[in-house]
Design a protein that fits this description.
By secondary structure, this protein is α/β, with parallel strands linked by helices. It has eleven helices and eleven strands. Strands 1, 2, 3, 4, 5, 6, 7, 8, 9, 10 and 11 form an eleven-stranded mixed beta sheet that branches. The relative contact order is 0.20.
């Protein structure tokens, strides 16, 4: 998610003198000072009487790529920050093992039955704009593509939001996706490696729209008391992102990893994550600040994880050949 709104988005590799009891690969904004990582680490260590270490990379796709390279040499016990579009890809490469966390407490709308991956938050990819700069926002993806509005988005090869846009364009345009990418490229300011770089540029007024989440405006209201940032609601629908955690196939401590996954969907963690990672909780009866009631409520469109696994390479080739 990448849900950090600080210029100090850290990518920290811990330098402890001893091996941690549990090592979690995640993305950089999760472990930033403003992200959920530090508070979750403190709370879980108090619960388990153990040592938890976060190792951070740029984005969810980077987590997957790192594990692909390391394989059985990895330090990772838990992967935290993949999303539902990557679950089947990850499973097919035999990089994870089943968890034993009960799924009956998850929101029914998620329809989650996967025993290898556990959701811990979700949201909808959205284009964010500043009402002080954009008076008449676009109301559809096609309107955005066909406009001359300046846009910043993330690389689908390295970023889960970027991959979300890849799926969004394909869902809306189908076989006409290459032409849509070509048209969008004429008013794209830049394509960044990760979420934070793109959002930072947007906050400096470098573009009219940036690819982010329908929950992003909540941060500005709660943390900055700024009301001008909004998410555009698109008539075609939006791609949802369900962020997941999984136990590495190579973990030496799957029991503790399971305990950590259970902790992620506990009331304490689920109350904390929305106001630090700026996404929605995956369990019911979590009290959220009022601003969450005023976020756009998109219609969900998209593809199954199996469809993404089958077509992802083809769709990436379409993007590379048309958007650059």
């Amino acid at each position: 998610m990448k849900k950090l709104f600080s210029p100090l988005a850290a990518c920290m590799l811990a330098t402890s003198a001893h091996a941690a009891d549990l090592t979690v690969y995640t993305y950089d904004s999760f472990v930033s000072e403003w992200g959920p990582g530090p508070q979750l680490e403190s709370a879980f260590e108090a619960q388990c009487q153990c040592d938890l270490e976060f190792i951070a990379v740029d984005d969810g796709i980077s987590i997957l790529n790192r594990l692909r390279i390391e394989k059985d040499k990895t330090k990772a016990d838990v992967l935290l920050g993949l999303d539902d579009s990557l679950t089947e890809v990850t499973r097919r490469e035999s990089l994870v093992q089943p968890h034993n966390v009960a799924l009956d407490g998850l929101k029914a709308e998620l329809q989650w039955q996967d025993q290898d991956f556990l959701p811990y938050d979700y949201g909808f990819f959205s284009f964010i704009y500043n009402t002080e700069n954009v008076a008449d926002p676009v109301t559809s993806l096609k309107e955005l593509v066909e406009s001359d509005a300046s846009v910043i988005y993330q690389d689908p090869r390295t970023s889960t939001p970027g991959q979300g846009l890849l799926l969004w364009v394909k869902a809306v345009y189908g076989n006409q996706a290459p032409a849509a990418w070509k048209q969008l490229s004429t008013h794209t300011v830049t394509v960044t490696k990760g979420w934070w770089e793109a959002y930072s540029m947007f906050l400096e007024d470098d573009a009219d729209y940036v690819l982010s989440y329908n929950t992003s405006p909540a941060y500005h209201v709660i943390a900055e008391e700024k009301q001008q940032y909004k998410a555009a609601l698109f008539s075609e629908g939006h791609i949802a992102q369900i962020e997941v955690a999984a136990i590495s196939k190579y973990s030496d401590n799957p029991e503790l990893a399971n305990e950590f996954l259970s902790f992620l969907i506990s009331p304490h963690a689920q109350t904390l994550i929305p106001v630090t990672n700026w996404m929605l909780p995956v369990v019911d009866n979590i009290e959220l600040p009022e601003v969450f009631d005023h976020l756009i409520q998109p219609t969900r469109i998209g593809f199954t994880p199996k469809q993404v696994a089958r077509q992802r390479k083809v769709w990436l080739r379409e993007w590379r050949s048309s958007a650059n």
